[in-house]
Amino acid sequence: xxxxxxxxxxxxxxxxxxxxxxxxxxxxxxxxxxxxxxxxxxxxxxxxxxxxxxxxxxxxxxxxxxxxxxxxxxxxxxxxxxxxxxxxxxxxxxxxxxxxxxxxxxxxxxxxxxxxxxxxxxxxxxxxxxxxxxxxxxxxxxxxxxxxxxxxxxxxxxxxxxxxxxxxxxxxxxxxxxxxxxxxxxxxxxxxxxxxxxxxxxxxxxxxxxxxxxxxxxxxxxxxxxxxxxxxxxxx
Length: 236
Prior knowledge:
Blueprint: H1 2-7, H2 12-22, H3 29-37, H4 40-47, E1 54-69, E2 72-84, E3 90-98, H5 103-115, E4 120-126, H6 132-139, E5 144-147, H7 149-156, H8 165-176, H9 181-193, H10 195-199, E6 218-219
Parallel strand pairs: 1-4, 4-5
Antiparallel strand pairs: 1-2, 2-3, 5-6
């Protein structure tokens, strides 16, 4: 039960309280830590496991989490790469805990993914961190790097009043997730003609660019003729 709770993300203190409430069992921090340390070998194997050669989509991001560092608990960045396989199933390719998020660190992450067997990524989704697209393209030269929808929304919302942000986020999401450029253009024009758009002109103030083919959203690299890899963004 301790290992299951620990794998689910509970801290040692949370596990201690849970066992006391549900089972009436009181265990020290040291005992629980010794139990969780027993799976460290399996964790190491998982971290270095071979990966598929190709992933249609890989998301790169970081979450700030509390990590036990000796006798102290500190905030650190858990860098995560989540790949969508050819079967459409999401899989965590790796988690790297580091004090800060930086382009140099992501370059090492991309190099590690390549060393573990990844040879090509069709679309890499990431935030607007300076140098991250270059780090991805250095390891996977034919990859299309796209700013994720969530970060595009975050970049747009500071330009509007607070009371309009939720409503505008819903409308902008229709533009950024439109299946075609024409559909995105239509959604953009509808937003511009609405009362919400009148108060927040989408083209001039928000920097909204319609369609998945916009230069704001995509950094594409053409694939060579006769490539055996799956088709690029333009023909998917």
